[in-house]
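Inputs:
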Amino acid sequence: MNRDYADVSMAVIRRLPKYHRYLKDLLDKEIYRISSRELSRMIGFTASQIRQDLNCFGGFGQQGYGYNVEELYNEISKILGLHKSYTTVIIGAGNLGQAIANYPSFMKYGFKLLGLFDVNPKLIGMKIRDIDIFDVDALEEYVIKNNVEIGIICTPKEVAQDIADKLTRANVSGIWNFAPIDIKVPGNVTVENVHLSESLFILSYLLNEKEYLNK
Amino acid sequence: MNRDYADVSMAVIRRLPKYHRYLKDLLDKEIYRISSRELSRMIGFTASQIRQDLNCFGGFGQQGYGYNVEELYNEISKILGLHKSYTTVIIGAGNLGQAIANYPSFMKYGFKLLGLFDVNPKLIGMKIRDIDIFDVDALEEYVIKNNVEIGIICTPKEVAQDIADKLTRANVSGIWNFAPIDIKVPGNVTVENVHLSESLFILSYLLNEKEYLNK
DNA sequence: TAGATTGTTAATCGATTAACAATC
DNA sequence: TAGATTGTTAATCGATTAACAATC
């Protein structure tokens, strides 16, 4: 349990939220014990892969028994850092910014939204579920003063890099980026992207896969 | 060029939208020629990987010269199926549904939104940029009648599977799913997921990576 | 032609799967 | 104890990188 997880591969990491979700479902169904084999059937990974994945972080199971759902859920929550809480701001209070602000699992898992920021004078001064929309000019100062840890970029791509620079200067540790651009940040800032159009294009590809065939 | 692309690995496919985006940027900057080496520097994949990737679909380059940006962009557009247009509906006209309805690259690349559907009587009858919000009870009939190809699920997770079943019965070919659940569909329907909370949890993990260390 | 850069094969690296001894 | 299932090593499979001959 006392190991450096920096060497666990991203392939494993990216599966963790899915384990987390399925374990939550099991808990909700009041199932408290699960084998890698049963989990495999539900989640679609091989049992072997599940055991390998979980073992990157410690021996959570018990031979002959399987895994204790609640314990495993709590461990994975901890690995994902969901036992802590985070201060966040959203930049860009348009449709997408508002959607994120209202996203249920956002609140549920300890992400605390302190404010939204926009350039649009019509939006500035309004509130989204009791949270103020501020002028984006005040962003840097606000982030510093309130020790904001995560900046969520929901702006058009043209200004995304500029916002990222401001966030970086104001010492955020992470950026959740929805703008369709690869923003550049120094090594001490972590960026996670949600590129919606890339996902849509993959769907488009898959729908056409069989057709491109004959030129 | 006359090959079955079904055997190209998903790892390659998932990089295509990124090539597409960078090539568009080059075109906008009026750069018409690029080598794998230069592209590598911009995009962050190795030059070797870029050449391998592109060669899965045909020899688009020229020895001693590199790639013609416009030609490559057009080819990748075609591979992604972006030369065609698609009819779509959005189910769930809340914040997220509305955000998607207004998403710029959505319109730009041939995805035609025919209607939104919701259960909320306050929303039914309203319009989002001239597009009607209908009662979700009318979904199945509407999809059949208008030959809708893609259903976009922006509902809470509780009803997502039911909506997916309706879409499947109404013969959509693809589903773009934003609900935090793995929906089940028959093999002839393609699903592409956007699991926002999974992405957020990864960010959370990365922020904590160094801390979990000492239990 | 000489220089540059692709297309493509071979080598390496990493991730997944299989197998089974350890053990609850 | 016997049965079940993990933890973990070894084998396989796939993806990335390196290298270079082909060729523009």
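The mean pLDDT of chain B is 94. Flag for discussion at group meeting.
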